[in-house]
Amino acid sequence: MKHKLRNIIAICFVLVLLVFIFNNVYAAINEDTENKIGSVAGDMFNWILTNLLNSAGGILGSVIAPLINVFSILIFLVLYMLFVGTGVSDGLAFPFPDQIVFNKIALLDPNFINPAEGSISQMVGGLISKTYYSFFTLAITVFVIAAMVIGIKLAISSLAAEKAQYKKALNNWIIGIVLLFVIHYIMAGVFYLNEEIVKGVGNTTEEITIKFDALDAVPVVGKTLGKLVGGIASVFGAEQSPTVVDLKGYGGIILMYALKGLIGQDLISSIVFLIIIGQTFGLVVVYIKRVFMCLILGMMAPIVVAVDVIKKSIS
Amino acid sequence: MGKQGGILQVWFKNFIIIVFTQSFHAIFLAFIIQIVGDISVNIESLNFTADTIGEAVTDAKSEGVLAIVSMVSIMALIKMEKMIKSIFGIEDSKFLGGVGDNFARSMAGIKSGVSMAKRTAEPIKDIKASNDRIRKARTGQQRAMDTINSIGTGKGGSGSSNSGGSGNTNINIDNGKKNNKSPEFLAGELYGKALDAKKSGDMDSYNKYMKEAAKNLKDSRTSDRQIASGSTSTIGAPTIDKATNDKISAAKKSLQENKIEEELAKADRKNAAIRAFTRAGSTAAALAFGMGATDNIADAATVANLVDAPLDVVSDRFSAKQAYGSAGKKLSKDLEEARKQAIENIKKENPELEEDSVEFKAKVNVAVRTEMDAKLAVDSKIPQSARKEAAKVWKEAGSSIKRDARRYANDISRNGVTYGDTNIDDI
């Protein structure tokens, strides 16, 4: 009886597995509850409602889109003035998200050991090096005092357990002093590794383009016109519609929504443009914050090593 | 490194994460750019094929996906740092605005939200207040008109006051016939005649008219002094019903003030309506920006509030210029109408005067100037942001009139009649 039950369960399990393997039900939508009316009147109602909503959206868009565009332009100008207007970057290196992330904006480069031309690290380089060497000297002083204390304690201690403890402290001290002298090489290595990864990944996106039909920016008739031109061009055997342009990277995406929103007065594009430009602003803030965090952590490094050694020696 | 625990380990972890976050960002963004590129190719291929012309639904869906992917990916980038830190077990530091004090952050968010809501609702309150002011001003005008009409039909006006003013102040000037003219009015009339006589070379008549004018002015001053001292008896001059005169003056003044008040309230209402629209728009835009720049609603509200406040100042200036600028233009139009009305009234009152005579012109100038001065008072109530616009309108409308009036005053002064510029309205 027990065996039978086990066999039945095993067969059921295998069957269930087979059903799952041959019928992919994991990501299917539930068509039974899909919003379908299923009658001529219902379809007509659906059509009228859709068109009404689209028209309302269009009318609303033509009123609200210009207002939203004003704010987008303001944020864009703030970023422009911050980077290009102040001369810290050229016009090509505007802080678009990909330019920031792929390390093409010198200002946002956190590498203070080999700072890029025009970076924050280079601007405050003098201060950083002075502070670093001050902390380094202080750390050396701490290490010397620690060495003296450990040495004296080791000399005067008579118990084996105590001696072992001070020897351990001495080991920590040796590791600490080595670390103190190599820590900036470690930091340089970390920066180098990061830069190489970013450069490698950035290069893979060089060839990727975002296709944008310039006619999409024409209000009202742009899309239909674009389709017509595309259709005619394909009849004549062209590989691409003559009005389609290839844009690159996130700057291309932003430019695409900016054109649709500003010239085409398309509400959705205006909102997307505003949100993306707002997010770009946020990303700029995150990366500026990152630069300062790196600078502070870098300057603190000698002191951190020294304090760590003392803490361990005391404990 | 393994033995180096404690603060050095925390420092090292933080440093590694902060630096390598960029690598994670780069990998993620490269992936996203690949997706976005594929979607855009898909959209354009739909546009391109002749068979798919009209497949707008698929196109719109792809565009929607493109927009969502573009927006969400940067949001994910910003959030990624936190995620990586939590994977490596690093607590976010409170240093440099890190996450930490949720309560304070939420409170700041709520406070910012309330502040934004208050600012957005403020113009709606102003619209209501402006409507109340308009209603009150209209009631005031009606009351003043009733007073003027009752005096006009019952006792008749004195005709001594300026006949200019707006169309509404067209009081029964004809009742103030020549027999009942005030000494000031006669003085002005005689002075005009004297100048006309001088022009035609009849110096005898000129001297006669000037003497008469001077006599009337003297009578007027004596009369004024006596009225001021409480004695109502007048010497030689035609009888003036001072109480009626005062009543009409007060009613006219009230009418004028209420009219100005109505125009101002209308301008305020328009300003508030534009502000309501622009402030709602700026709040929505600031919130969208806040959501884009931060990763949660509390921070978004705080950032949005910071952005919204200066945006409101800018948009308020814009709406004030729109509202008060058009109010200034409207008042300028009123002024032109007042000028026409003044000419009609003076013609009716003085049919013997020729339109190009000095006296006629002077009377028109004085009447219109009085009207303009009353309206100029509006300028002082207009906010600073809109004053420039209003001042420009007033300058265009009023400079020639003012110049003529001053010239006339100087002319009188040169001819021995001691009327100053400021008293010219008394004529």
Summarize the structure.
Chain A is mostly helical and 315 residues long. Chain A has helices at residues 2-22, 40-85, 97-101, 120-123, 125-156, 160-204, 222-235, 249-262, 267-314, and strands spanning 209-213, 244-248.
Secondary structure layout plus pairing:
The complex is a heterodimer of chains A (315) and B (427).
Chain A: H1 2-22, H2 40-85, H3 97-101, H4 120-123, H5 125-156, H6 160-204, E1 209-213, H7 222-235, E2 244-248, H8 249-262, H9 267-314
Chain B: H1 6-48, H2 56-87, H3 102-154, H4 183-200, H5 203-229, H6 242-293, H7 297-349, H8 358-381, H9 384-414
Helix pairs in contact in B: 1-2, 3-6, 3-7, 4-5, 6-7, 6-8, 7-8, 7-9, 8-9
User: Which band does the percent of strand residues of chain A land in?
Assistant: under 5%
The main β sheet of chain A shows up as: 2 strands, antiparallel
Give the strand content of chain B: under 5%
Please state how the strands of the largest beta sheet of chain A are arranged side by side. 1-2
Overall shape of chain A: flat
Please trace the helix and strand order of chain B, writing H or E for each element.
HHHHHHHHH
Portion in helices of chain B:
over 70%
Low-confidence stretches of chain B: 52-58, 94-100, 153-179, 227-240, 415-427
Report how far the terminal alpha carbons of chain B are from each other. Answer: 102 Å
User: What low-confidence regions of chain A span 5 or more consecutive residues with pLDDT below 50?
Assistant: none
Explain this structure.
The complex is a heterodimer of chains A (315) and B (427). Chain A is mostly helical and 315 residues long. Chain A contains 9 helices and 2 strands, in the order ααααααβαβαα. Chain A has helices at residues 2-22, 40-85, 97-101, 120-123, 125-156, 160-204, 222-235, 249-262, 267-314, and strands at residues 209-213, 244-248. The radius of gyration of chain A is 32 Å and the shape is flat. The N and C termini of chain B lie far apart (102 Å). Chain B is mainly alpha-helical and 427 residues long. The model of chain B is unreliable at 52-58, 94-100, 153-179, 227-240 and 415-427 (pLDDT under 50). Chain B has helices at 6-48, 56-87, 102-154, 183-200, 203-229, 242-293, 297-349, 358-381, 384-414. Chain B is built from 9 helices and no strands. At the A-B interface, α2, α3, α6, β1 and α7 of A face α1, α2 and α6 of B.
